[in-house]
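[SOLVED] Predicted holo structure with nicotinamide-adenine-dinucleotide

Edit: marking solved, answer below. Original request kept for reference. I posted the sequence and ligand SMILES and asked for the 3D complex as structure tokens.
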Amino acid sequence: LLPEATVKRLPLYLRALADAGDQQQATISSEELAAHAGVNAAQVRKDLSYLGSYGTRGIGYDTGLLRQHLRHELGLEKEYNVALVGAGNLGRALGHYRGFTERGFHVVAAFDTDPAKVGGFIEGTEVFSVRDLARVVKDRAITMALVATPAAVAQQVVDSLVEAGVTSVLNFAPAVLNVAPDISIRRVDLAVELQILSYYDSSRRHE
Amino acid sequence: LLPEATVKRLPLYLRALADAGDQQQATISSEELAAHAGVNAAQVRKDLSYLGSYGTRGIGYDTGLLRQHLRHELGLEKEYNVALVGAGNLGRALGHYRGFTERGFHVVAAFDTDPAKVGGFIEGTEVFSVRDLARVVKDRAITMALVATPAAVAQQVVDSLVEAGVTSVLNFAPAVLNVAPDISIRRVDLAVELQILSYYDSSRRHE
Ligand SMILES: NC(=O)c1ccc[n+]([C@@H]2O[C@H](COP(=O)([O-])OP(=O)(O)OC[C@H]3O[C@@H](n4cnc5c(N)ncnc54)[C@H](O)[C@@H]3O)[C@@H](O)[C@H]2O)c1
Ligand SMILES: NC(=O)c1ccc[n+]([C@@H]2O[C@H](COP(=O)([O-])OP(=O)(O)OC[C@H]3O[C@@H](n4cnc5c(N)ncnc54)[C@H](O)[C@@H]3O)[C@@H](O)[C@H]2O)c1
């Protein structure tokens, strides 16, 4: 496995390549890649050496080849069917987001407990009852899930997702979830992000 | 300044204390704090030693005192007035989120360029025209902003926010933004989160 800090930067290099591709560039320098990831050029060269990708001094990296390497390393040749659990405020926004589909992550089913939401649609995706979760996850070969439910039910939701065959979870609920070691779980905690900004703001004030 | 990895964990220790407070605990162990932050107990003790917080062997940390230390270090005694720029799908979800207000981050104004949205409200917060941004940011002493606009306009939006006096930005648009060194900017990129999950999924398959 690559170091997590490296893994987090690979998608940013991919985005830099997409921008370079728009301008029909044949090569891209480590400096240009570095600007997209907020690191220095030496870190870029180190990250890419893990993939066996080496640039040419003074010219940089072949954009086509590097893109292929990065997509392979990130497992992006595969498309993913994604479940959205919780069709509330945040869930509806996630269901509308075209950025997921563009990158091969297709929200193919949503789930909720609220009878007023079940049977509805978010941007063409049907909202099922959470009672149908196991059947729909298996029928639609869903392996990834976005959890946008209240924190109090997040653990039981993740347990039923894992039981049904989901192996990757992006959790938005402010709760620490326990999963088996072979399940990948990432957490986005927006309140924590603002508290981190507050730390840097307060350090500026006390300088 | 503390190491960034430490700064990211402090809000998680604060959340652990909130949970412990609900159960009327007078002390909390480093193991319990570690479980909330996904690290080991030694890392917790190291992080807290930066704040001059030391637990008692076998008993742990005084919950009241530690909470005060953490809130002070994170600058949370201050309340923040926050601007929301972009009142679209994501912006509306962010405007509804009670988790911000509960922690002292108050969304006091929203901004958009779409005439159909201007003059409307998100959960009691008025949506202004982006032309009024400088005036409203100053009038309402706004120092923090959530940017939920398309990527193409994110840089110009941040420039006008900074000019009006905002010093901290949480950016959701998939764009690399340039700001002066005294401005704090954090980025949440949900598509990158899914690509990271895809990396770990693909490494599992190739084991
Ligand atoms: N809205 C935001 O911008 C935002 C920001 C950060 C974090 N979050 C977190 O995301 C989660 C969702 O937030 P929200 O604002 O969308 O809340 P919400 O109340 O609008 O939506 C939650 C949805 O989950 C559904 N639900 C409840 N129990 C369920 C279960 N067992 N299975 C499936 N669905 C269930 C509810 O019926 C509701 O539709 C919360 O944990 C919140 O803390 C939200
Ligand atoms: N919806 C999601 O779940 C989600 C997830 C990840 C990232 N994002 C990112 O967040 C941003 C917003 O996404 P969305 O789904 O809400 O899009 P959206 O199109 O629904 O909303 C964007 C809003 O920004 C407004 N806007 C455009 N130019 C503006 C300007 N100069 N000043 C102020 N407002 C302006 C538009 O009128 C619109 O209301 C995008 O950059 C998107 O890539 C969204």
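OP edit: Chain B is about 45% helix and 20% strand. Thanks to everyone who chimed in.
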